[in-house]
Amino acid sequence: MPTLPIQSVPGRFPTREVRIGNLILGGNHPIRIQSMVNTPPDDPEAAVRQISALARAGCEMVRLTVPTLKDVQHLKQIRAMVRAAGIEVPLVADVHFSADIALVCAPVVDKVRINPGNYRKPGQPLRTHWDEAGYHEELAEIEVLLAELVAVCRKHGTVIRIGSNHGSLSPRIMDRYGDTPEGMTEAALEFVRIFHCMGFHELVLSMKSSNVKVMTGAYRLLVQKMKAEGFDYPLHLGVTEAGYGDEGIVKSAAGIGLLLEEGIGDTIRVSLTGDPVEEIPAATTLARRFSEIQSVTGSSKPTGHTPPITNTRHRRETIPVAGMGGTNPPLVIADRPCHADPSPDIVAETSANNPYSLIFRGSEARLPLVEYLGKETFIPDKNQPAALLLPLHPDETLPEILSYNPAFIPVIRAPLAMHTSVGLAWVSILDQFLPGQPLILKIECGDFPQAEVPIHAAVIASCWFSEGVADALWLSGPQDPAGLVRLSFMILQATRSRITATEYISCPSCGRTRFNIREVAEKIRQRTAHLTGLKIGIMGCIVNGPGEMADADYGYVGSGAGKVTLYRGKTVMQRGVREEDAIEALIGLIKEGGDWQEP
After folding, report:
1. What's the pTM value of the predicted model, to 2 decimals?
2. Between 20 and 30 A from 558 (CA), which of 9, 74, 200, 584?
């Protein structure tokens, strides 16, 4: 009989240590927490206040945008003021387009972030087609630029983050790979190989996307290729443009948490629209979850990293049972009857002692719920469907119970504090005894603090539903059942396994944003929340906005003081719309596109 040893927890992917200011990243050091200020670049006092607040909240590294050369002077002021105040958090310059800005920033900060998708000399013409020779010619031009940057970074001890973004890949990469995880990975590795040949190894890598599946796929592929090429650079994790509130937290936890559970990642940022200080509690919870699991299991040594236990990327094939499994979308189960929007698909009826049935909404179907009690387990008639609530670990009587009734629907229990690999190890056992049966994931929330439940639940559920392993999600605990049902639907939406709401792709904002993006996002939500399945991008500026919201059906992008550009898909529909008119114009655009429904 297979067992579920606690050693099945993956070891952390071994990365080299990189010193960023007074902070050491990678190796066996803790997961580091970082954020980014969203104050205007020309307001040093506001930036220092926000950096101070972030440091007090537990942020260990702070990034600032540097959109123009003149903003480097403001960056110098900010650094001087921060250090004078006794704040020693490392500072990171965020550079997107200009190689010249990166060169001037590098002596001022502890780390400079460059985007391989658009790192070039100002005014440098863009190519439109690449044969093999042209492809390598452009790489040679990039190598010259990077050599200049390396010389400055070596002199000043500055680290470089190669930040590959799903929405801003270079035309060269797009021509060969498209906007895919493969393209994101190769975009970063091209730069890594150049730096490696120069003997410069003070590097950190990131693969950002607003799509959790794309983001996790890109990081996994990056680790696979780094191992093949002998690279061991630390990894910065994040879901970009995740949104705000619980939805943004759930989306971030679904992506970041899944990778941390697999031992991938050295530093994280939870990107939320609004005050960056609000990001820190969620990031702290994620980092603590990983470190506590590793300390309990003794797997924190930076050796012995194993690949994900499951990485099917296709849904597990099952037979349909009362609307569950098969090609049906994953269902949501409630502990007891409740009024939630959306409504649960199944409600568990409970007696004073044990659960005894699952009631399917909109049908007469009732599924007996049997708790596994060893030899004392009640076994329904053979071939009669019944849900079997499995123990945390199998024992010697389990094969007999499972073999007796091939119609059992297994219910996997997953306490919030349990590492996901322990529960996932059940899958191979169940495929042996109950092949093709739908699978229910029951996450037991216990008495966890309310603010932490969405984070832990999203981590666990993402490992199951992002991979297409489970067919129903059941969040169970003393918390408000309607709230747990809403959280279930939110998690399924974040993992793209079931869409039941409007999806908002909104950036956290930064110094380039010239409007209150949190306020605008809330106004747009109030008008459009009933448009189930529609994706709306709400972006602060044009630097990464149009690219990062490329997955959206419609987009609202800041294009200057008081001005907005509106998109349908990737196409600009209206430019220079006054901010006070932009939301109404966006609604009009949705109506013109035939995607509007009256609330």
Report:
1. 0.89
2. 74
